[in-house]
Amino acid sequence: MNLTQMNTTGRIFLALLAGLVVGALLPADLGKPLLPITDAIGNLWLQALQMTIIPLIAGLLFTGIAQSVGQAGGGKVTGRALLAFFLLLVFSALWSMFFVPLLLEWWPAPAQAAASIIAGSADAAVATGDIKIDLGKWLLSLVPANVFDSLAKGDMLPVVTFVAVFALAATRLEDERRLRLVGLFDAVKDAMLVLVGWIFVAAPVGVFALAVSVGIKAGLGAFGLLGHYIAVLVLVQVGLIILVYPLAVVFGRVGPLAFARAVLPAQAVAVSTQSSIASLPAIYDGAERLGLPETTTRVVLPLAVSIFRITSPCANIAVVLYVGHLYGMDHTALAFLGALLAALVAAVSTGGLPGSITFLAACVPIANAMGVPIAVLPVLLAVELVPDVFRTLGNVTADLAVTTILSRDRAKSIRG
Predict the structure, then answer these.
(1) Average pLDDT rounded to a whole number, residues 12-19
(2) In this structure, what are the phi and psi dihedrals at residue 151, rounded to the nearest 5 degrees?
(3) Does residue 246 carry a pLDDT above 90?
(4) Buried b (16+ CB within 10 A) or exposed e, 84-112
(5) 3-state secondary structure of 129
(6) Contact (Cβ atoms closer than 8 angstroms) between residue 12 and residue 207
(7) Which of 51, 225, 246, 335 could anchor a disulfide with 370, C-beta 3.0 to 4.6 Å?
(8) Is residue 414 part of a domain?
(9) At what angle do helices 203-218 and 221-252 cross, to 10 degrees?
(10) What does the pLDDT read at residue 154?
(11) Cα–chain center distance at 343
């Protein structure tokens, strides 16, 4: 995370705190008349962000798949790496789906604050309860008969399916024509990032307005609700990080202390910079300490820091499950399957971008797949600063772990 991103995140966070305090302390005779105004301003900013999501995801997904497939032509090591990345991303998503509902059942969100926020939401009546999904209709929805109709409706899964298949088909074209398409989608992606940057100039105003509305509805209890949310996001990611260690030890055939010592410097860089790429030299050093062969590390590590984000499915699904929990929603198996697919796509397509951008681009498709309203997401985005530290921490830990696993046939068995 560079200085500009930190300043933007800091301004958004301060706007959130100020909005919550103002909204919570306003007397009722002032707060209720003000609520329609703050809702309108906040929702205007939210809709401005929403209008960028579909073209941004299309550009990210197309270029991400095209580049990944191109890199996959690099030999057996790369192929094994991509397979390992996929399996670990599925593991990450399943861990979140297992752990978060259990945690929220044992330690639910503050009931009064959650009820106050949801009671003031226009989506509450639609969202609360168990959403039934018909298997046949769900399967048909994955393949759009008219992709433009899906675009108009904002249906994310069929759009994602079309763009993914389109990108795979484009990789079979001759280089010149394929590069033209990749260049087009890359330009769309870059233009959307510029537009998102403009919209984020107004982020403190939009978040402040949304936070004032939350403060009016939930009072000072909103602080407890956000603290609870941060704790849930941190706990699910810490749990995933802990699980990565035995995976490296068992499948990578290294000693637990040896792996812990090797990954520690990279973890320190990750916490201080919140950047997997900035941690790459320290990860390389850790690989050398473990005696991993350069024939593997030179291929796997650059690929891992570029496209492998193990915490992405875990954290993004946890965000959506938390919002669904606020609305009192129960989710079917098909909703979880839709969330898994959307989370895997987001993990592949949003790597290397600032967390403030990837948060909505990754969480909105998952929320759409599960039928969860997205009105609360911008408020949660404003406190992403803390969970984002653990996202990067988990990613660099998994980067060295997967490299260790893929080196197991050549590396010497090391005991810590």
Answers:
(1) 83
(2) -60, -45
(3) yes
(4) bbeebbebbbebbbebbbebbeeeebbee
(5) strand
(6) yes
(7) 335
(8) no
(9) 110
(10) 61
(11) 7
Report the number of distinct structural domains present in the chain.
Answer: 1
Angstrom distance (rounded) from CA 416 to CA 408: 16
Q: Which of 126, 108, 140 is nearest to 225 (CA)?
A: 108
Name beta bridge partners: 330. 130
**Residue of 357, 270, 416 whose CA lies nearest to 53:** 357
Q: How many Cα atoms occupy the beta-carbon half-sphere of 33 within 13 Å?
A: 3
Q: How many CB atoms lie within 10 A of CB 413?
A: 10
Per residue in 328-349, pLDDT tens? 888 888 889 989 988 988 787 6
Q: What's the one-letter identity of residue 136?
A: G
* CA atoms within 13 Å, Cβ hemisphere of 307: 26
Q: What dihedral do alpha carbons 58, 63, 66, 70 form, nearest 10°? A: -160
CATH number, domain containing residue 258: 1.10.3860
Domain that holds residue 29: 3-406
pLDDT digits (tens, 9 = 90+) for 277-307: 768 888 888 898 898 887 788 778 877 877 7
> Do the domain assignments include residue 415?
no
What gap in Å lies between CA 31 and CA 260, rounded to an integer?
52
Which residue's structure tokens are 């798949």?
65
- Residues 38/210, Cβ–Cβ less than 8 Å: yes
- CA dihedral of 274, 242, 303, 251, whole degrees rounded to 10: 160
Q: Is 153 exposed, middle or buried (0-12, 13-18, 19+ CB in 10 A)?
A: exposed
| Cα–Cα separations (whole angstroms), residue 370 to 241, 279, 374, 400 | 26, 34, 11, 33
Residue corresponding to tokens 């609700």: 225
Q: Which residues contact 180 (CB under 8 A, 6 or more apart)?
A: none
| Structure tokens that stand for 325 in this block | 């929990």
Question: Residue 137 has what pLDDT?
Answer: 60
Answer yes or no: is 411 within a domain: no
Q: Which residues pair with 130 in a beta bridge?
A: 330
For strand 129-130 and strand 329-330, is the pairing parallel, antiparallel, or unpaired? parallel
pLDDT at site 401: 95
pTM flag (> 0.90): no
Give a yes or no: residue 52 inside a domain. yes
User: Which residues are bridge partners to 329 per DSSP?
Assistant: 129
